[in-house]
Design brief:
The chain contains no helices and six strands. With 71 residues, it is mainly beta.
Length: 71
């Protein structure tokens, strides 16, 4: 699960990138509510161990977080 807080309701996109900056996948896009948001995200078995970046972007906000995959 990827969780993030927004100051206002926004239309945005949540994407996952590897450390080389390549897009690994788009998790969700559309209207997100003000306050706490949680998006369920299942790691594909083909996703190798490593550090990844989750990035939420909209016209108003950019949020970036990192997570590690350990197998």
């Amino acid at each position: 699960t990827l969780s993030f807080d927004l100051p206002t309701a926004q239309n945005g996109t949540l994407s996952i990138f590897d450390m080389a900056g390549r897009t690994v996948g788009g998790v969700a896009s559309g209207e997100f509510t003000a306050g706490s948001n949680s998006i369920g995200f299942s790691l594909p078995s083909s996703m190798p161990p490593g550090v990844y970046t989750a990035r939420y972007t909209s016209e108003e906000t950019t949020l970036i977080g990192r997570f590690a995959v350990v197998r």
